[in-house]
Amino acid sequence: MNIIVVGSGGREHTICWKLAQSSVVDKIIVVPGNGGTANELKCQNINPDSCDYIKEGENPYVAIAKHEGCRMAVIGPEDPLAEGLADIFWDADIPCVGPKKAAAQLEASKDLSKAFMKKYGVACAASETFVNKEAACEYIKQHGAPVVVKADGLAAGKGVVVAATVEEAIAAVEDLMDNGRVGNAGKKLVIEDYLEGVEISVLAAVSVTPEYAMSGNATIKVFQPARDHKRLMDGAKGPNTGGMGAVSPLDDVTAKDMMQFGDDILTPTLNGLIKEKFDYRGFIFFGVMLTKNGPKLLEYNVRLGDPETQAVLPLMDFDFAALCTSILNGSLKEFNLKWKRGYQVAPVVVSGGYPASYKKGCEITFDESVIKASGSKIFVAGAVSGKDKTQLLTSGGRVLACSAYGSTFKEAWDKAYEGLSGVHFENAFYRKDIGLPGAAESGKL
After folding, report:
1. Could you please report the per-residue DSSP string of 329-357?
2. For 230-262, how does the pLDDT look when each residue is reduced to its tens digit (9 = 90+)?
């Protein structure tokens, strides 16, 4: 079958690469795609602006999907999900992997998400919501620090400030509400208690509809845990980013941790999705802090994490397209998730200056012999094709990830960084400690 994949990041490149390995997939239409998907097996990038067959008023994604004979859609990023693209695909009789608009608000609004957690007893940090700057600042003065200040809306991973002092927290409120650092996403803020511990990411497949709930087939199946490294610099220092690299699985996550996660976070989340009568057929990301009082949920993402996808999907020892089909037809409960024994390490290379301003249009060169010898895979994120498909130019802050497998963590780590040594562009920057002890701990502020 032909599949349409919506998105242009490293997550989407990884999804396309994994889908292409399935014998049932003939062609993958990527809208708009990036410089990586342009060269990926079975993939074809299509920019809606180049399609003269799209009629006025017609949804461009649906038009492209129908024109290319796509029988399934997979939506990668959060914005189109929050805007209801999954609903539009289903209305056009194109089964879509991705929650419908109502369920997608679990990521689109931090306030709504926290209300859902509280309503269904999901273990999480205590929080308050504010639309008034003065009230938010007064709360911070009374509450004290450290606290976490979050923009309510979608902010591409840049709407969260972990403030060690009252002054830092108030400055974050002013920056988000007055200075518009993340636009309208910061007009409403959620201020929550700071949790000390180590963070993990739990990605999962979700197959929930009222019909599946009635038949007992509504389910969430978790993948192997992963860890993103949010801070810009080694040792978990510097500003938060969209993610500087990921590893999976995690030796420091115990069976007890995952059992508690299931009892205190996963099960109440599933119950909530069912009781809200959501149509949620897609993926979910649980951002979890392992505290001395057990796992606590930091946030939901209503899609696969990025860059966690670049570490988790290569470890899948099953047909990803078949998994997507099982999500859509209600058979996920019976689907066997089988994993390769070993580890995946995926450090991310960013443009100098990220997450603030950075230069675009820098040519990326690859030492193919070094990358091939390392056995690593390059997943492109913020890069586009140049004069021809073989030339890559930087177009974003997070440019690419170099993902490598090893039977031990050290082997995977060594291979990933060996591969990274074969990637070059002006002002390229990456962390040197992805996956190492202490690299992602929140610690005491």
Report:
1. HT-GGG----B-SSEEEEEEEEETTTTS-
2. 999 999 998 888 899 999 999 999 999 999 999
Closest CA to 5 of 412, 332, 321: 321
Distance between CA 269 and CA 257 in Å, rounded?
17
Q: Which residue in this structure is represented by tokens 């890559």?
A: 392
Question: What does the buried/exposed string (b/e) look like for 343-362 if buried means 16 or more CB atoms within 10 Å of the residue's CB?
Answer: bbbbbbbbbeebbeebeeeb
Q: What is the pLDDT of residue 330?
A: 97
Q: Hey, what amino acid is at 188?
A: K
Tokens (6 digits) for 75: 């939506």
What kind and span of H or E run contains 404?
strand 398-406
pTM, two decimal places? 0.94
Q: Alpha-carbon distance 340 to 174, whole Å? A: 47
Q: Which amino acid appears at position 130 of this protein?
A: F
Q: Which residues contact 275 (CB under 8 A, 6 or more apart)?
A: 120
Kindly report, residue by residue over 122-166, the tens digit of the pLDDT: 999 999 999 999 999 999 999 999 999 999 988 877 788 889 999
Segment 54-76 mean pLDDT: 97
